[in-house]
Specification:
The chain is mainly α. The protein has 2 helices and 2 strands; from the N terminus they run ββαα. A two-stranded antiparallel ribbon has the order 1-2. The chain has one domain.
Length: 101
């Protein structure tokens, strides 16, 4: 069974032309999430996918920069529960997923 982490980006108010939010997938089937190295690689993959989904803005485009930052924060928030669930499963049957504030 192939494991993956779906990453959804929220559509910003300034992009009404998009009918659905952009989405991406982060492959996890090749990772050992019971190790620090596996978790670090997962986090790098998530960060990379979020960066691709949300795009970038030039440092002088303050409005664009704010939109990119908001997109990245919301997208990371949207995958936090799924990430925690994957890590809890990797830790074993006695583990539970906790979410901080």
């Amino acid at each position: 069974m192939m494991k993956s982490l779906a990453v959804l980006a929220f559509v910003l108010a300034s992009t009404p032309a998009l009918a659905q939010p952009p989405a991406g997938t982060v492959r996890t089937s090749d990772l050992d999430l019971a190790t620090r190295a596996g978790v670090a690689k997962l986090d790098r993959r998530i960060d990379h996918a979020v960066a691709l989904l949300c795009g970038s803005a030039t440092p002088t485009d303050l409005n664009g920069r704010a939109q990119v930052d908001a997109c990245r924060a919301e997208t990371m928030k949207s995958v936090a529960d799924r990430r925690a669930t994957l890590l809890a499963r990797a830790a074993g049957p006695g583990a539970i997923a906790l979410k901080g504030r």
